[in-house]
Design a protein that fits this description.
The protein is 34% helix and 16% strand. It is an alpha/beta fold and 599 residues long. It folds into three domains: 201 residues, FAD/NAD(P)-binding domain (3-Layer(bba) Sandwich), CATH 3.50.50.60; 266 residues, FAD/NAD(P)-binding domain (3-Layer(bba) Sandwich), CATH 3.50.50; 69 residues, no CATH class. Strands 2, 3, 4, 5, 6, 7, 21 and 22 form an eight-stranded mixed beta sheet that branches. A hairpin with a 4-residue loop joins strand 5 and strand 6. Helix 10 crosses helix 11 and helix 11 packs across helix 12. The longest helix is centred in the middle third of the chain and has 26 residues. It is globular. It starts with a helix and ends with a strand. The structure holds NADPH dihydro-nicotinamide-adenine-dinucleotide phosphate.
Length: 599
Amino acid sequence: MALSADELRAKYRAERDKRIRPDGADQYIRPVGEWSTLFDDPYVTPTDRPPQHRDVEVVVIGAGFSGLIMGAKLREAGVDDFVIVDRAGDVGGVWYWNRYPGAMCDTAAMVYLPLLEETGARPSMKYVPGYEIHEHAQRIATTFDLYERFLGSTHIEALRWDEDRARWIVTTDRGDELHSRFVTVGTGPIARPKLPGIPGIELFRGTAFHTSRWNYDYTGGDRYNTPMTNLATRRVGIIGTGATGVQVVPHVARSAGELFVFQRTPSSIDVRNNHPIDPEWYDTLEPGWQKKWLMNFTTLQTGGFTDEDLVKDGWTDISQRIRDRVVALVTERGEYNERIQQEAYEASDDEKMEEIRARVDRVVHDPTTAAALKPWYRQLCKRPCFHDEYLEAFNAENVHLVDTDGRGVERIDATGVWVNGTHYELDCLIYASGFEVGNEQTGDDALPITGRDGVTLHDEWANGMTTYLGLATRNFPNLFHMSIAQGANLVSNIPHNYWAAADAIAAVISFATDQAVTCVETSQSSQDEWVANIASNTRSLFGNPDCTPGYYNNEGRGFGERERLNSTGYPLGAVAYFHMLEEWWNSREFSGLEFSGSR
Ligand code: NDP
């Protein structure tokens, strides 16, 4: 029997309270010290190369989609003298690292994959696998001649502004010293793997690895879905049932002798409905189609109106339900207020989550397992997941859900995992425990970026990010952030944020080059105004302390001013931000920036 709205709220609260921990985000093991090996690259052995000491116009930090789009846009703007630096041995960012079986993007390829028209590419499916996304990243690099500008397996150690020469001095762990006029920083929001801080984790003597560094030597198989035959006689454990765990489980389930999935909080699993993209239909798309699709998706996903829903999926579904309810309530009551928005959100969310829980009952045969797999929180408290094989996997005899009822794994020892006083003996333990979330410059291990007068960006941002348009910070001339925070903050389609930022940054850099100026910096007043504008945005998706804990709400602690500034976007929303930014750079006036010095 369905619960009343009040009973549902009470159930959500009780489930949340079970999971609140005093150590919050500190419960995780960070990739530093003895755990810094978490960053090791299992895919390439870095080749020897002489250190580079030279002047360069632009250093692009990060070769994920942010750096690749940046590189493409610089080339389009006629700026050719740049290097792209990345810790990884190849381009691709998260799609380079995350090669776990089943890796796939939950955002439709037509809008997720950048520069489809420019590269002449066609996605194979509505949602494409990780290896196809990585291949697309490589295609962008090839199309725009970015490989010849790529410094891979290279970790940037520090950046220092040289006021006299108006250049950034960029040093790396390969002994490079690049003197660069401009720098763009696109290190991504989920680049640093973390481990669960479970007592005894260091004791395990079987094979253990994090999903972002998959050990195919041990498991056999490959990321192209070749069966992992080495697991056939093995007992495998997976800790973590977030977006990654959900994608990994069905694949390991097919290969492993026995699979134990250790669950602390179930994810919400909506339908996937993947299907191939028809090449004939794809060829009929008019030039300029991708920009149209991007704005269509963003508009619908953020509650706006369009004539049609081009992408039509779980991301646009929930926002359209809320939007249509708001319209109905406004029509009925003859007025609009925040309460209506809240009511529409709650009713749509209750409806959606009921559907998601009912799906568990329909798919999973064992009632106890089904009950444990039901999520009891609002859909956007955690990252929504979409999959058509995950729930099904628990019907297989070799797959065992070990539900910890919100408490998490008790401890780990040399031979396995303890939960509720029971020991699960394992040969292999896979950590699908996620990543440190946030801009690399806001975290404790921030890249040392020293601007004017010896001030570091880390100190400058001690109380939260300060930017103009999300792109630039006073006292850090010629340095541009490729971040989603303080910009569009469109989390459902991260590359769209980078596309917009790259257009704007490339326009500024090419303008500064044409005008032969040496320095571009945001004015203090523009920055102050922008930060005040961001701080006024109380409608963030993140930071709700009433939600079940996770990285969306600082593990249940909610957000203070600092976290809000680090994670909030333009108050008028992503669509308004994208339009405003395009007008700003298209005007070639670049209001709010100061240009100075001459070459
Ligand atoms: P998450 O942080 O979302 O999940 C980590 C998981 O580990 C959670 O289920 C968490 O449980 C669990 N966990 C942590 N500590 C313990 C413990 N002590 N005992 C048991 N379980 C524990 O990481 P993911 O890698 O799954 O996802 C990170 C992000 O990566 C996603 O949110 C998404 O943005 C992105 N991603 C995107 C994909 C795409 O389609 N584009 C695909 C995969 C990932 P609990 O929930 O209780 O905290």
